[in-house]
Amino acid sequence: VGPMGESYITEALDFPGYHYLMSVGKTEGTFPDSKTDVVTYYYEKLGKVIIKHIDQRNNEIILQEEILEK
Asked: Whole-model pTM?
């Protein structure tokens, strides 16, 4: 919220586990005098793959990795 006619700028944020897709609406401009402008940011949740490397003799985890995929 700001004074009528003052400039504004919005931007996408980084959220762990999400990928920014697009925005709809004016991401920058000036505050309108009589209405509310809406800017919507769309994200998609990233999939996760867990990779385990296990010692066959004792079932001990040697290495575990996580990969985030779109």
From this structure: 0.67
pLDDT tens per residue, range 33-54: 778 889 999 999 988 889 999 9
Residue 5: which residues within 8 A CB-CB, separation 6 or more?
30, 31, 33
What is the Cα–Cα distance from 3 to 65, expressed in whole angstroms? 50
Phi, psi for residue 2 in degrees, rounded to 5? -155, 170
Instruction: Compute the half-sphere exposure of residue 10: CA atoms within 13 Å on the CB side of its CA.
Output: 18
Contact status, residue 16 vs residue 38, Cβ threshold 8 Å: no
DSSP letter at 60 equals -
